[in-house]
């Protein structure tokens, strides 16, 4: 495993997936008393998201090639999209509304757009396309699994997490992660422009 690639992928994915924020949103979407339902929803959401990012990350570039879209164009578009996500993380107010009825939230809104939204899917393509070795691909895959495993654990512990961190803590963390994501997005845009003009 290439530790530098793993660390880079882990940082980017952690920022955009936001396991803590996702767990707090998950807590508000599933009734607190439904323990079995909560576990099933958390597992389904993580499995769907992991598969989406892995498949799209590995085969998304080939699909783009068929459509005549270069990876550099995707870097710039992805950077702009990530910047938009970061801007919203920094400026928008978080909305919480506790659920009262039991429903399947694993695909929408948990997997798409929260855990495997456009930003995460774009980032996965960029991460896999930046690696040229099997070791690099394995490092990115392990980073994806690490982030989603952490998210799953936090989902299981979401009721405790909400008590510990609270809304204020979540808002502070969300805005801080937004700044990091904004910097990452600018780097993607810069790399895309540099490779096109260079």
Automatic annotation (TrEMBL):
Q: Which protein, by its recorded name, is this?
A: UPF0056 membrane protein
InterPro entries cross-referenced by the UniProt entry:
Multi_antbiot-R_MarC
Protein location: Cell membrane
Domain of life the protein comes from? Bacteria
Q: Give the residue spans that cross the bilayer.
A: 6-30, 42-60, 66-87, 107-128, 140-160, 172-190
Q: Provide the family line.
A: Belongs to the UPF0056 (MarC) family.
**Record membrane topology:** Multi-pass membrane protein
Q: Where is it mostly found?
A: membrane
Pfam annotation, one family: MarC
Keywords assigned by UniProt, alphabetized: Cell membrane, Membrane, Transmembrane, Transmembrane helix
